[in-house]
Recover the amino acids of this structure.
């Protein structure tokens, strides 16, 4: 489903937004000029697949009941909080409020980031070629970093934490068996298919 029609960002809105950007995000999200297209929030959608090569700026909160897809070569910036049933990010995702999602999977071949100014809560955060950073607390059932960096300045409160990589045996103990191919390797295609089907990434207890 598509977003509402954007409008130009006003000078006052630009000043307020730029004042709220933390210095830690300077490499990802610079000053926003007056007049750029923005979608006023709050925005509530049943699902949302961002068009490739079309970046979006949400002025306020974004809620997606189902799957949110942030594809390669795009930026999605949410100045409020983000809530979603599940998130597949292969581009740049910036949230200036809290982020509360179900399963969260990121792989941009180490080219992009997901950064959250507030707290990040995810049932399962799975990183396989992406950089994740939250200035607040990271909480949920599992936070699994397979290749890069997952950092939480406010601390980590998860049942299963593997922020410095996992071996194949550890992965099979935590993740659903359907995510592995016939050779026992974690499959990108199967991860994405399971997210699109609305199924959890974690193995049933």
């Amino acid at each position: 489903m598509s977003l509402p029609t954007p409008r130009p960002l006003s000078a006052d809105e630009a000043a307020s937004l730029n004042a709220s950007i933390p210095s830690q995000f300077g490499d990802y999200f610079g000053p926003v000029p007056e007049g750029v297209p923005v979608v006023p929030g709050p925005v509530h959608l049943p699902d949302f697949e961002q068009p490739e090569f079309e970046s979006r700026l949400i002025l306020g909160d974004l809620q997606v009941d189902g799957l949110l897809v942030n594809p390669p070569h795009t930026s999605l910036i949410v100045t409020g909080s983000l809530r979603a049933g599940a998130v597949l990010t292969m581009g740049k995702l910036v949230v200036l409020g809290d982020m509360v999602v179900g399963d969260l999977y990121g792989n941009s071949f180490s080219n992009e980031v997901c950064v959250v100014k507030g707290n990040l809560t995810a049932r399962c955060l799975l990183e396989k070629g992406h950089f994740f950073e939250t200035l607040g607390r990271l909480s949920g059932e599992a936070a699994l970093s397979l290749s890069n960096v997952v950092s939480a300045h406010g601390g980590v409160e998860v049942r299963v934490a593997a922020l410095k990589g996992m071996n194949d045996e550890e992965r099979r103990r935590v993740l659903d068996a359907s995510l592995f191919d016939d050779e026992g390797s974690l499959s990108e295609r199967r991860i994405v298919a399971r997210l699109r089907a609305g199924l959890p990434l974690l193995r049933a207890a």
